[in-house]
Specification:
The protein is of the alpha/beta class. 40% of the residues lie in helices and 20% in strands. Helix 6 (128-139) links the parallel strand 7 (120-124) and strand 8 (143-148). Helix 5 crosses helix 6 (128-139).
Length: 267
C-alpha cells in the first residue's frame, strides 16, 4: 500500500483526504491519504518520521510551507523557489523534491472552464495565494497587475514576477476596465458577505476566480455572474492543486470528476 498525506497544523478541517481517497478508489489504487499534525517547531522531525514510515508524498500546509522550502533535504523546483513556498513533497525518487501546486490550481481551474490564459489579468492580494496566482498567470503569458491593501507589498511582488506591476487596492476599478482575468487571492468574502472588488468595476468580458471556497458562492462571484462574467469558484482551485499533486505522486491521470464529487460533497 502507498501512503500519502497532509502535513500541517491544524489539519482537522482539511478537505484533502476525501478528495484524494476518492481518486484512489476510482482508479483502484492500493493507497491511503492520512494527516499529520506536528507541533509548529517539529517540522524536521515530522518529515524524517514520514520518510522512515515509507510515506510516498506529502502535501504541506500552514505553517510549514516555508519550512519545506528551506529544509536541507528538500530539492525545491524552480517554480516553488520563485513563489517562495513548497506545498508538495515527493519522496518517490532518489531525493526528496519540493513543488508548489497552487500555481497549477489557478491555471487548470481557468482552463477547465474554457478560459484562455492571455491578455491582461488582475490579482488582488500579495500574500501566499497572490504570489502563486501572479506567477501562474505571468508564466502563461498574461500581463499581471497586482493590487494590495499595502501597496508596497504589491510593488515588491511585482518586482519578482515577469511583466507585472504593483498597485494600491483603490486602483482595481481602473485596472479591471481593460482586463480579461481577475483572481481574488485574499480572504475577503470568507467571514462576511463582502467583496474586495466594487461590483460596478466588473464586466462581461472578465473571467473571475475567487480563491475563497467557503462559501463556494461568494459575493464577488455573485456580482460577477450578474454582469455576465465567467465565474470560477475557489473549490476548483483547491481541486486542481490536489489533482496536480495526485498526478505527480501516482503517475496516473487523476479522475477529476470523482475527486470533484467528493470535494463538493464535503463542502
Amino acid at each position: 500500500m502507498q501512503v500519502y498525506g497532509l502535513l500541517g497544523n491544524p489539519v482537522g478541517h482539511s478537505l484533502s483526504p476525501p478528495m484524494h481517497e476518492a481518486g484512489y478508489r476510482e482508479l483502484g489504487l492500493d493507497a491511503r491519504y492520512v494527516t499529520f499534525e506536528p507541533a509548529p517547531d517539529d517540522f524536521d522531525d515530522a518529515v524524517a518520521g514520514a520518510r522512515a514510515l515509507g510515506v510516498r508524498g506529502l502535501n504541506v500546509t500552514i505553517p510549514f510551507k516555508g519550512d519545506a522550502l528551506a529544509h536541507p533535504d528538500v530539492e525545491a523546483d524552480a517554480l516553488a523557489e520563485r513563489i517562495g513556498a513548497v506545498n508538495t513533497l515527493d519522496f518517490g525518487g532518489e531525493h526528496v523534491t519540493g513543488h508548489n501546486t497552487d500555481a497549477a490550481g489557478v491555471t487548470r481551474a481557468f482552463e477547465h472552464h474554457g478560459v484562455d490564459l492571455a491578455g491582461a489579468g488582475v490579482v488582488v492580494g500579495a500574500g501566499g495565494a497572490g504570489r502563486a496566482a501572479a506567477f501562474a498567470l505571468a508564466d502563461a503569458g498574461v500581463d499581471v497587475a497586482i493590487a494590495n491593501r499595502t501597496e508596497s507589498k504589491a510593488v515588491d511582488l511585482a518586482a519578482d514576477v515577469p511583466r507585472a506591476s504593483g498597485h494600491p487596492l483603490d486602483a482595481v476599478p481602473d485596472l479591471l476596465a481593460d482586463a480579461d482575468l481577475l483572481v481574488n487571492a485574499t480572504s475577503v468574502g470568507m467571514e462576511e458577505d463582502a467583496s474586495p472588488v466594487p461590483a460596478d468595476a466588473l464586466h462581461a468580458d472578465l473571467a473571475v476566480l475567487d480563491a475563497v471556497y467557503t462559501p463556494v458562492e461568494t459575493r464577488l462571484l455573485r456580482d460577477a455572474a450578474a454582469v455576465g462574467a465567467t465565474t470560477v469558484d475557489g473549490a476548483w482551485m483547491l481541486l486542481f492543486q490536489g489533482v496536480e499533486a495526485f498526478e505527480r505522486w501516482t503517475g496516473e491521470t487523476a479522475p477529476v470528476d470523482a475527486m470533484n464529487g467528493a470535494l463538493r460533497a464535503e463542502l
